UniProtKB/TrEMBL annotation:
Keyword flag Membrane: yes
Source organism phylogeny: Bacteria, Bacillati, Bacillota, Bacilli, Bacillales
Localization, UniProt: Cell membrane
Designated name of the protein: Ribonuclease
Alphabetical list of InterPro entries matching this protein: Virul_fac_BrkB
Spans traversing the lipid bilayer: 21-50, 87-107, 128-149, 169-193, 205-226, 232-257
Protein keywords: Cell membrane, Membrane, Transmembrane, Transmembrane helix
Provenance organism: Sporosarcina globispora (Bacillus globisporus)
């Protein structure tokens, strides 16, 4: 364990330079921006079929997104939904296309981390990207439904077994930890399936833990900085775009570093064997 950690840091620093992590993160930020609004439009289009509201969807984004960006996101989503009530088909097509391009950029970054080339057929690679896109949409919807059904489950258990209000307080705290856990599951699946290399699920866990913790902490820290010290409002409406792109850029760096950690860990374990 000690040898692995001591070898990880210098190798990771070298890989950051060799694999152009910051350049690839910029590509991811661009595709994240293209994917954001189609994804939100698609999710908002599902609201009539789910026991959630449009505000529930935006609240999930608000938990992590820098405050400056929420006004931009809410304004655009409200304008689009008011102008066009038949968004589901457009949302599906736009989300699949833009998000699968984002997944392809992630695949490229992970393949570079493992020093492998993309040999899968275009149809297979694109199909995998589309399946991962649908999987992420499903997980996102699940994350939205958890607070709704989690509350009902807690109330049922409390009334059925005659538990105190303290139980409900603990239950509410535990169920809100569901979002980071779901995020961990998403990252694990991404690190396991995306690279063009045969991997075990357990080998994807170190990077998934790093990405989950790193993304949550960096998002909260950046959000705090923007609200407390940043003066992006001086740039007018473009300030929100700047904040959004910086947040996506940081997120891209975290995701790619998770893949690099898995690749380095895999190489160290192979040498040990």
């Amino acid at each position: 364990m000690g040898r692995t950690f001591s070898a990880l840091i210098p190798n990771l620093w070298r890989r950051v330079e060799e694999d152009d992590v910051f350049g690839l993160a910029a590509q991811l930020a661009y595709f994240f921006l293209l994917s954001l609004f189609p994804l939100l439009i698609f999710l908002v289009s599902l609201v009539p079929f789910l026991p959630i509201t449009q505000q529930d969807i935006l609240n999930v984004v608000r938990d992590f997104a820098p405050g400056e960006t929420m006004k931009l996101i809410e304004t655009n989503i409200n304008e689009i939904t008011q102008r066009n009530g038949t968004l589901l088909s457009f949302g599906i097509i736009a989300t699949i296309w833009s998000a699968s391009n984002g997944i392809n950029a992630v695949v490229k970054a992970f393949n570079k981390a493992y020093d492998v080339k993309e040999t899968r057929h275009f149809i297979i690679a694109r199909g995998m990207a589309i399946l991962l896109t649908f999987a992420m949409i499903f997980v996102f919807v699940l994350a939205l439904l958890l607070p709704v059904f989690g509350r009902q489950i807690g109330l049922f258990i409390s009334s059925e077994f005659g538990l105190s209000g303290q139980f409900l307080a603990i239950w509410n705290m535990v169920r809100w930890l569901g979002s980071p856990f779901i995020l961990f599951v998403v990252f694990t699946g991404l690190y396991w399936i995306a690279p063009n290399k045969k991997l075990t699920c357990i080998s994807a866990v170190p990077g998934a833990i790093f990405a989950t913790v790193g993304w949550v902490l960096s998002s909260l820290a950046f959000s705090y900085y923007v609200s407390s010290f940043g003066n992006f409002s001086a740039y007018g409406s473009i300030g929100a775009i700047i904040v959004l792109m910086i947040w996506f850029y940081i997120s891209g760096i975290i995701i790619i570093l998770g893949g690099e950690i898995n690749a380095i860990n895999s190489k160290i374990n192979k040498e040990d064997c």
